[in-house]
Amino acid sequence: MKRITIIALMLLLMALFVSAGEPYCVFIIKGDVTALIHGKVQPLKGGDTLDESDVINVGKDGYLTLKSRTKKRITLTASRPFRGTIKQLKREPNAKQKHSSRFMLTIEGKTASDFVDSSRRIMSAGGYNNRDLFDDDDDLRTHEELHEMLLKAGLIDR
């Protein structure tokens, strides 16, 4: 009897592990963006963690970029109205973007708002042509990529 209980418990734990989707974190958020979490509609904010089975709703004025919390090094962006799971967003044209490990390390534990001021300072100090502002070429490319993401989201101006 004890063996059956242990086997049943192991099967239950395996089922829970398999059903858990890939975790994502809100990196850029702007406008009307909500998620259905545990049966409740909640407004999202930077840094919130979501599962790929969570349903998100990006309104007509909304913009959302999620970053993978695994080693897959991807971001997912909904820049137009979208309603569906994160898993469905992954299949949308141009939503998924692969990044370097340096880029993902730079944004780890941060949201876009952490980079808005630094991006503005870089532009006022000569922009991305001023190589003295960066440690190396990887640092330069990472900040250029971040700058482009912030521009697309409308968080900074050219």
Please give a structural write-up:
The protein contains 5 helices and 9 strands; from the N terminus they run αββββββββαβααα. With 158 residues, it is α+β, with helices and mostly antiparallel strands. The chain has one domain. The strands form 2 sheets. The protein has a 5-stranded antiparallel sheet, with no helix packed on it. The radius of gyration is 19 Å and the shape is globular. It starts with a helix and ends in a 5-residue tail after the last helix.
Order of helices and strands: HEEEEEEEEHEHHH
Oligomer: single chain
Mean pLDDT: 85
Number of domains: 1
Radius of gyration: 19 Å
Strand order in the largest sheet: 4-1-6-7-9
Lay out the secondary structure.
Blueprint lengths: L1 H18 L3 E8 L2 E5 L2 E4 L5 E3 L3 E4 L4 E6 L5 E5 L3 E4 H4 L6 E3 L2 H7 L5 H12 L12 H17 L5
Antiparallel strand pairs: 1-4, 1-6, 2-3, 2-5, 5-8, 6-7, 7-9
Question: How would you briefly describe this protein structure?
Answer:
This protein has 158 residues and is an alpha+beta fold. It has helices at 2-19, 86-89, 101-107, 113-124, 137-153; strands at residues 23-30, 33-37, 40-43, 49-51, 55-58, 63-68, 74-78, 82-85, 96-98.
Task: Looking at this protein, list some descriptive labels.
single chain, alpha+beta, 5-stranded antiparallel beta sheet, 37% helix, 27% strand, 158 residues
